[in-house]
Amino acid sequence: xxxFDLVAHCLKAEGVTWMACFPANPLIEAAAKxxxxxxxxxxxxxxxxxxxGFSRQTAGRQIGVFASQDGPGVENSFGGIAQAWGDSVPxxxxxxxxxxxxxxxxxxxxxRENYKHITxxxxxxxxVDKTSREMxxxxxxxxxxxxxxxxxxxxxxxxxxxxxxxxxxxxxTRALRSAPSRGDIRDTVxxxxxxxxxxIWAGQGIxxxxxxxxxxxxxxxxxxxxxxxxxxxSAFPDDHPLALGSANRTAPKTVFQWLGASDTLFAIGSGLTxxxxxxxxxxxxxxxxxxxxxxxxxxxxxxxxxxxxxxxLTLELMxxxxxxxxxxxxxxxxxxxxxxxxxxKQEWLEEWRPLLRSDETPINPYRVIHEINQTVNHxxxxxxxxxGNPRDQIMPFYQATDPHGYxxxxxxxxxxxxxxxxxxxxxxxxxxxxxxxxxxxxxxxTGMEIETAVRAEIPITTVVINNKTMGGYDSKMPVAMEKYGxxxxxxxxxxxxxSLGAKGIHVxxxxxxxxxxxxxxxxxxxxxxxxxxxATRQETRFSQYPELTS
Length: 550
Prior knowledge:
With about 550 residues, this protein is an alpha/beta fold. It folds into three domains: about 5-165, Thiamin diphosphate (ThDP)-binding fold, Pyr/PP domains (Rossmann fold, 3-Layer(aba) Sandwich), CATH 3.40.50.970; about 180-340, Rossmann fold; about 355-535, Thiamin diphosphate (ThDP)-binding fold, Pyr/PP domains (Rossmann fold, 3-Layer(aba) Sandwich), CATH 3.40.50.970. The protein contains 22 helices and 18 strands. The chain has helices at about 5-15, 25-35, 45-55, 70-75, 80-85, 110-115, 130-145, 155-160, 180-195, 205-210, 210-220, 255-260, 310-325, 335-355, 365-375, 390-395, 420-430, 440-445, 450-455, 480-485, 495-500, 515-525, and strands at about 20, 35-40, 65-70, 90-95, 120-125, 150-155, 200, 225-230, 245, 265-270, 285-290, 305-310, 380-385, 405, 435-440, 460-465, 505, 530-535. The strands form three sheets. It has a six-stranded parallel sheet with strand order 2-1-3-4-6-5, sandwiched between helices. Helix 3 crosses helix 17 and helix 11 (about 210-220) runs parallel beside helix 13. The longest helix has 22 residues, at about 335-355. The radius of gyration is 24 Å and the shape is globular.
């Protein structure tokens, strides 16, 4: 058994069933021999984005794995790993490395050195005897604290060597969970119960700790409304009476209104990272921050109370403390609060009704989102978006009702991410309808991965809103646009999909949207990959109410 064979056995022991890859890496063959399915993507970023989606959808219970060749394979992988780092996604990157005899000779590229700033741990197996130990260190690191990627570089000459029999043993890893002290819990609950206008700010740690039920119970006991972050959309049901919506830089009006009016903010399962793709929390609030990562507390915001621990364990303790302080049944339903939230939501939807129900052609993208909301089975679907305008348009309006029914992302933003991301989600949830909502520019980045989905029999749906331009860039480069049409592009994307073996559907009129989505769901059920291309207009209006938070 050589080093590559041992790595494959380690992966098998850790529960890995498939591996995204891009040749050539001897681990691909070694993994196949032990029953791990290799899926070869069209390029490295596609494979990394797919294992990213898989890890998100399994809440890190299963770790996505990507293997690449050395040299250009390692170089081309950087963007995908950076995306996972920015969005705190657990995964394992296993690049082949140059031989140790030529490791420091240009132009050989050191993965360990160059990836150490975008991974939780970057290791290099420079002695075959270290194989089991380094694999265990990597999996352990991935599973502890704030999620994120790890890298184990496998030098080709070292890994080709025989592993001594006494060093082949591998011990699997598990996540270790901790909870805050009783005193911190008591102080936090006391502050929240005393606040006039508290708000819960729930991050993706709710999803990773599987704490949706606990969050609902706590919100209902205390009658505190809930905002979810972009990454946490679906962690709290959007149809719950206390749901305010998700805080992308666009959001329902309720998010802006309650965020602005709140006097106490309780963030749980969130890094509270300032990002251009999210909402900043206005100053002047009493800030409570609960997270598994001590380095995230007091990072971007001044925190008044900090709680270190797993979101689920924390909420369970807080539920007990609420009952101890105000009784088993908690607070009575605040009918005024619930009515106010419902009224603001209705007012907001009425404001956007002309766009959501628009009959114009080319089609308004908000009409597409409305039809998606009306057509899909929310409880049995996984919906995600791509970068740019599609994200900013769909995030406020899509109703996510079940955990992991929506994948929100975007602290760092790569166009084309949505196609491989939803492929990974489908691998995690093969019985659900999995759909990506993206623009035409984004399709140009990773559209060839549609062929990968066809070849690997991963029946996903991609909705491409084709407005034939880079939406929103007119104001950023007006001369280049007017004089040279710099941001315009065109294409028959449904036709491209057909040529790659998928089912392509063209939509030109609003009344065609719902039938196309229904056909996509039927086709996916039959095992077909689908691209629905919808001729849309450029829409520059977004659900933003900054005056309510200033």
